[in-house]
Amino acid sequence: MNTLLAAEDLSMFGTDPWWLVAIKAVFCFAFLMVTVLFSIVWERKVVAWMQLRVGPNRHGPWGLLQSLADGVKLMLKEDVIVKKADKVVYVLAPIIAAIPAFMAIAVIPFGPAGNEVSIFGQRTTMQLTDLPIAMLYVLAVASVGIYGIVLAGWSSGSTYPLLGGLRSCAQMISYEIAMGAAFASVFLYSGSMSTSAIVEAQADRWFVILLPVSFIIYIVTMVGETNRAPFDMPESEGDLVGGFNTEYSSIKFALFMLAEYVNMVTVSAVSVTLFLGGWRAPYPISTFWEGANHGWWPMLWFIVKVQLLLFFFIWLRGTLPRVRYDQLMKLGWKVLIPVSVVWLMLVATVRALRNENIAFSNIVLYVAGAVLGLLLLSFLFDTFRDRKAKAQAAAPEKERVFDPMAGGFPVPPKPGQSLPPVPRRRPRRDKDLVVSGASDTATASEGKETDGV
């Protein structure tokens, strides 16, 4: 692939009249709300199909109005505020969680950056706005949304919500690092942080083909960022009752659920924009139909791709069990972050070599040599580590025995170590027992008389 630096021509944004901007904003809000309502019904239907049971089928045709009925029911429920809660923060927490979820969609392109469509006679772009640092804006908004969950857990004045909020905070920190590294790989190939420029850079080849590792890393991190199964540790009902939202009811509880599903739509839209060609038609269609990427058709391709990723969320929930919290942290810190950093260094090296006009075949040889070198070092490390483990296993028993109270408090043995043998007490015979209420002298004399008889 030749050196590709997308030109950031953002002059078409910011020129729309105020009424057209308002229409676009209302459309973005309505798109998220309708998608959320559909996603809830779709999730219940798909999971019911996977578990061989009947899903919602009462409200509306095929149960399509079930999520709307649930929303009305939640709004009409009693709004309870617990006594020990910090009322101001307690009320603001669901609002802080919900509002940033809607803000990220403002920079997502639904169509080409040119004046492609006409709304009431006004030519405009199929995007609310764009920024030279649009993806940094998305990261910032996603980071702000997590404060709502943390504050909800803290302000409830209860133990389980506090633990859920802390889990969510740790999970966000762990997975946003790998997500940022995955974004950086896209920035290196597109030469821009603008969402419209990133989509334009995928005209010849989608980044899911050029950056498959970044795509996989982002898919895993977006599930962790949205607190969805199997990474739904902040609201793990098995050990936290309900997590950060345990003490919430009525519309406040509905806002947390709304924020979760809106975040699902948002991260899916970001994934489509960065790796799946954005609004561009799939490969077979775009080759024989020139008008597939013009007019209102790009919006259709974009929505279909988003729905496929939402199905991926639903499939994960119906397939995989919840992981343990230590497994969640291990995956984030020991797997995703190292892999994302190494992959980012590899991508940066390839881009630097391409900018020096080095042949692609030579780059492949350099990369293959570096990978083989890393594999060799890993093999040598594993070999010496196994030798050390075998040597420890063959060590004398005295070296493997350790004192569990050496540090002042009991600790369990490490692999290869064992606890010292506990001396067994000598069993007491019947003649050594003292009868209750009798003196030792009387017991001894009775023993002698018995012996004389």
Oligomer: single chain
Number of DSSP strand runs: 2
Note the overall shape. globular
**Radius of gyration, whole Å:** 31 Å
Strand content: under 5%
Order of helices and strands: HHHEEHHHHHHHHHHHHH
What's the mean pLDDT score? Answer: 84
Helix content: 55-70%
Question: How would you portray this structure in words?
Answer:
Its EC number is 7.1.1.-. Pfam families: NADHdh. It catalyses: a quinone + NADH + 5 H(+)(in) = a quinol + NAD(+) + 4 H(+)(out). The chain crosses the membrane at residues 18-42, 88-111, 131-154, 175-199, 205-224, 253-276, 296-315, 335-353, 359-381. One of its GO terms (molecular function) is oxidoreductase activity, acting on NAD(P)H, quinone or similar compound as acceptor. It is a single chain. The chain is mainly α. The chain has a domain at 77-113 and 131-375. 62% of the residues lie in helices and 1% in strands. It has 16 helices and 2 strands. The protein has helices at 18-50, 66-76, 87-103, 134-155, 159-190, 195-200, 207-210, 212-225, 237-240, 250-275, 283-288, 297-319, 325-355, 360-394, 397-400, 440-452, and strands at 117-119, 122-124. The chain has a two-stranded antiparallel ribbon. α2 (66-76) packs across α10 and α5 packs antiparallel against α8. The chain is globular, with a radius of gyration of 31 Å. The termini are far apart. Mean pLDDT is 84; it is low at 1-7 and 448-453.
